[in-house]
Design a protein that fits this description.
- The structure is a homodimer.
- With about 250 residues, chain A is an all-alpha fold.
- Chain A has two domains: about 5-100, Multidrug-efflux Transporter Regulator, Chain: A, Domain 2; about 115-245, no CATH class.
- In chain A, about 65% of the residues lie in helices and about 0% in strands.
- The first copy, chain A, contains twelve helices and no strands.
- Chain A has helices at about 5-10, 15-25, 40-55, 60-70, 70-100, 115-125, 130-145, 150-160, 165-175, 185-195, 210-225, 230-245.
- The longest helix of chain A has about 30 residues, at about 70-100.
- The first copy, chain A, is rod-shaped, with a radius of gyration of 33 Å.
- The model of chain A is unreliable at about 200-210 and about 245-254 (pLDDT under 50).
- The interface between A and B is large, with 52 and 54 residues.
- Chain A binds a DNA duplex (30 and 30 nucleotides) through helix 2.
DNA sequence: TCGGGCCCTGACGCAGGGTCAAGGTCAAGC
DNA sequence: GCTTGACCTTGACCCTGCGTCAGGGCCCGA
């Protein structure tokens, strides 16, 4: 008759694991000797081998419990179910690896490719680092709620930057973040923004992005990240009063 | 400013998960309103998106914690490590699927193929169900300690059964389990066993299996599974006394 | 003012054990 | 006979990533 430690060493498992199986009711408690030690006969060892064989194959203990007393037919059915489980897990791992691979570049973190392209363009034309971060965060937020539309929107916004006048306007708006709320230059900037306000996307059927929309989104973002920009808030007010005749402006959500 | 429930719905995560991230220190606690409710700004939402993106990709929370403040280089290194982890997990799953597949037949449970073949042969020649179980359990035990040698041993034992006289002897020994300890037929049976005691394996270099060894193993097994067989014990004594001139018998381990 | 739906904290639960902690036993050497 | 070290015992807390109460407070519409 073997002690728990001898059985554990014989099978290459830990003492703790065997006791765990007793606790779970997977393996009946063996008889104790005079000093209370568990004493194992060969039959217990055989049961343990069966448990370990299944466990090593990745069968959860709860299922092993069912299997130990199952008929061959039930056993075969359970084995099929377990295999299907494993297949699902492998599919999940493949999905994760793809997801991980898409994070491989630190630059393209957390946003779709089209946004990455747009952000690179913004960096090219010399947008400030602060504005870059706000821009990226805005897209992250937007992508959380509209993952399907964001690639199209980003593409449309990128196309706007093919126009040098739009570039200049955007950079000026960037600089304007440092202006006072009542800076007189804001009036002229509002006129510039307004000039692009009605710009339509070249793709038919897609919802057009207005320059003002983009500005509003970024400003809202900035306002909510603890860095409110008074000059931008004023700028939006000015734009809105001019934009009413371009199209009816719906309430900005939230 | 959003409540925790609104943020959760916006991102498609549970409230509990967000609170969990706070507890883990993954996400800083936001400010509370007058009634103690958490209030989230867009910056928090952005952080949450980043956490979820990584988490959905299967990155453990502990690692996400490191990653949130990491440089692009550190980030890339960690991503590579995570991917390597995933590869390992996939290999493990493949191994488990193979192991599961080998259990697919209820008959061949927990023993190598060679033993399955042997057991089928034993069933063919009409071994009792009780003896079959003991035989199988003996092999399970043996395989736990000598996984590499068991296929060869099983093959050798199977070859012994090509001899009709060995078959008869084995079946008689099976019946003998029901005999008294002092049954006179045991003497003749011991002579039969002894006749095969020196049988050498046809494979050179492989350790020979003696008929007596097989009998001893099975008897020890039976003795330890709570079904001791007195007639077998006596039979072994008789065999041992005859076998001393066949070869020097080492002490039986344990 | 009442009900239903939010929110809060705290605690337990899961699988499969790992890892102490505090104490009893056993065999060997002195 | 006494000590030492290697076993054994039970019990309890630790890990992951939250789910799921339990017991209370807050808010809003009727």
């Amino acid at each position: 008759m073997l002690t728990i430690g001898q059985v554990a060493e014989y099978l290459g498992v830990t003492v703790r694991a065997i006791r765990h199986y007793h606790q779970r009711g997977l393996l009946p408690e063996p008889e104790r000797d005079a000093s209370g030690y568990r004493r194992y006969g060969a039959d217990m060892v055989v049961q343990l081998v069966r448990i370990r064989t299944l466990s090593d194959a990745g069968v959860p203990l709860a299922r092993i419990e069912e299997l130990m007393g199952a008929s061959p037919a039930e056993f075969a059915a359970s084995v099929a179910a377990i295999d299907a489980d494993l297949k699902d897990q492998m599919a999940e791992l493949r999905r994760r690896r793809r997801a991980i691979a898409e994070l491989s570049s630190g630059d393209r973190l957390f946003v779709p490719d089209e946004v990455v392209v747009l952000l690179e363009r913004l960096a090219e034309i010399g947008l400030s680092a602060e504005a870059m971060r706000t821009e990226r965060d805005s897209w992250i937020l937007l992508a959380a709620q509209h993952p399907d539309q964001v690639p199209g929107w980003a593409e449309q916004k990128r196309k706007l930057f093919e126009n040098p006048a739009f570039q200049r306007m955007y950079l000026t708006a960037d600089e304007a973040a440092a202006w006072d709320r009542d800076d007189p230059r804001l009036e002229a900037l509002a006129d510039e923004v307004n000039a692009f306000g009605g710009l339509q996307s070249p793709d038919e059927g897609a919802e057009p992005i207005l320059a003002l929309d983009a500005l509003v989104a970024v400003t809202l973002m900035a306002a909510q990240t603890g860095r409110p920009v008074p000059a931008w808030e004023r700028l939006i007010e000015l734009c809105k009063s001019r934009a009413t005749d371009v199209r009816a402006r719906p309430e900005q959500p939230r």
